[in-house]
Amino acid sequence: NSGNQIALDLIKPRVGDGKLAGKIVVVDPGHGKHDSGAKAPDKSVYEKDLTLAIGTLVAKELSANGATVIQTRTTDTFVELKERAEIANRNGAEFFVSVHINSNRVAEITSGTITFHHGGSVTGQLLADCIQNEIKKIDRMPSIGVWSDTRIYSTGFAVLRYSKMPGVLLELGFINNSRDRKRMQEKDYQEAVARAVAKGIRV
User: Fold this and answer.
1) Alpha carbons within 13 A on the beta-carbon side of 24
2) CA distance 143 to 156
3) What CA–CA distance (Å, rounded) separates 100 from 108?
């Protein structure tokens, strides 16, 4: 601010240019092996299985759109949180997408999707906005919105904190909500999520 003049620096975040060709994207299906993640009240459905199924479809959709895709796991294996981010860092990924399923203390009271970004990351927030804007269009699954991961932990989520590129963590429904759980197991929902993620990154 000099006298009556105000100078503004406008930075356009490089989130997507409408093309995925040549972009490296890491898809991270959460949990795995002994780390089952959240589970249905009757233990009939585990987060680790849903994230692998959906994450694999996300990877296929991104690849079909021209991206080079790396999955942190393709089978029921366990990968440390920091290593998930380091896989993206070592491979020079442009984007990091971690797939998760939500749960809360009281079953049946909460429903919907949330896309998290790392607190303080402008490009991460823009990426989250773009992806959640597509996910919320999927029928029969409410949208809770876009949240900073610092809303859950003061330091944020490890996979987003350690990643050096814009990243998101998707919570695609509540496993202890019977409607969400049924919807998340449906192939058309899983495929719709995959399309939404690809479209959100392409925007």
Assistant:
1) 11
2) 21
3) 18
